[in-house]
Design goal:
This protein is mostly helical. It is built from two helices and no strands. InterPro entries: LysR_subst-bd.
Length: 67
């Protein structure tokens, strides 16, 4: 939607080349400091789908790498 001029998006930092490829203009957020928290919830009364298992596995790897 941002690329079509219909909204804004907060995304990880893009290079000028990446921004141009998406057709967007970037503005660096300086204040306040941007922080985030990730929370996940899933059903436990049945087995997770194959896609959910892959997602959880990839998140575990990514979060471990950030320690």
């Amino acid at each position: 939607m941002a690329a079509r001029g219909l909204g804004v998006a907060v995304v990880p930092e893009l290079t000028a080349e990446e921004a141009g490829a998406f057709g967007v203009r970037t503005v660096r957020i300086v204040e306040p400091e941007v922080r985030g928290r990730l929370a996940l919830a899933w059903r436990t009364d049945r087995p997770a789908s194959p896609a959910a298992k892959v997602l959880l596995g990839q998140l575990r790897i990514a979060l471990r790498a950030g320690e």
